[in-house]
Write a structure and sequence with these properties.
single chain, 297 residues, mainly alpha, Serine Threonine Protein Phosphatase 5, Tetratricopeptide repeat, 14 helices, 61% helix
Length: 297
């Protein structure tokens, strides 16, 4: 997502976790964990009678369950894509260039062990050497986004957009940060800007469609999902979000066809089952809704 800076990494080698280590963490101890796989914790299911399950459906769905949405932004891993020695320092200095590259290398090591705080520190040191390197600025925007600091994320993305206004990935990342800060219309503008730069770029179309649906602009939302679907018919998030807006528009057959397609694309995605369960319940197909909701546990 980062403009020419962040690329998808092998999901098993560089998997983003949710609990970054604190500042000052021992580097050697951190690096020892680089190859460890994260544990997946699941709540063991319990067998339920039909009556008990029906009560759950009524309690959860009738209690106000609403359609959920799948955002495009779900980073699995990242790496800073720099070629050593490819920077130009205003005041030529081999030592300064070496220090810049060493900070990037160290940052990659921290990213490999999901130590985002120290990654951020390294990038800030690199930015102190070359403060107009858009790759570093955008990388800070992404890292702050991953850590949940959306205010800092949008600040760095805003700077990256100033440095390189025609970068679609930076525009998109900026929109995501703005949306998390509830700055809805500014986020809309950034998604549209990303699409204007590259009309075939699916992620901002998906998020634009979701945001338009939340604003009640259903036909406009549907249009974005239809374009995104044409560009990538096997994108699970697009298919599910498209199904949701079709359901809200009352196009039941088309909506159901897309819920089923989403399930065929990702049988392990619990959000699909929850959304499809609500669709079935809204159409008074209670037994089917119960069965579908149970699959989301």
């Amino acid at each position: 997502m980062i403009c020419g800076l962040v690329k998808k990494a092998d999901a098993e080698k560089k998997k983003i976790k949710r609990n970054p280590r604190k500042n000052g963490a021992d580097t050697k101890k951190s690096l020892k964990k680089a190859g460890q796989e994260s544990d997946i914790f699941r709540i063991p299911g319990m067998k339920r009678s039909y009556f008990a399950s029906a009560l759950i459906v009524i309690a959860v769905i009738a209690g106000g369950l609403i359609f959920s949405y799948i955002d495009s932004n779900s980073p699995k891993g990242m790496v800073l894509d720099f070629t050593p020695g490819n920077i130009t320092i205003d005041t030529p200095s081999f030592d300064r260039a070496e220090e810049f590259n060493s900070q990037i290398t160290l940052c990659n090591q921290y990213i490999a062990v999901n130590d985002h705080n120290n990654s951020i520190d390294c990038l800030k040191k690199a930015l102190g050497i070359k403060n107009d390197d858009v790759r570093v600025v955008a990388a800070l925007g992404e890292l702050y986004f991953i850590t949940g600091n959306y205010s800092e994320s949008q600040r760095y993305y805003s700077r990256a957009v100033e440095l390189e206004p025609d970068n679609k990935k930076t525009r998109y990342g900026y929109g995501l940060a703005l949306e998390r800060m509830k700055r809805t219309y500014e986020a809309l503008d950034q998604y549209k800007a990303a699409i204007e730069i590259d009309s075939d770029y699916v992620p901002p179309r998906n998020d634009l469609g979701v945001l338009l649906q939340k604003l009640g602009m259903l036909n406009e939302s549907r249009e974005q999902f239809e374009i995104a679907f044409t560009l990538n018919p096997n994108n699970t998030g697009v298919v599910l979000n498209y199904a949701n807006v079709l359901a809200e528009l009352g196009l039941k057959e088309d909506a159901e066809a897309n819920y089923k397609k989403a399930i065929s694309l990702d049988t392990e995605n619990k959000e699909i089952y929850r959304n499809y369960a609500q669709f079935l319940y809204n159409n008074r197909r209670y037994s089917e809704a119960k069965d579908m909701l149970e699959k989301s546990y």
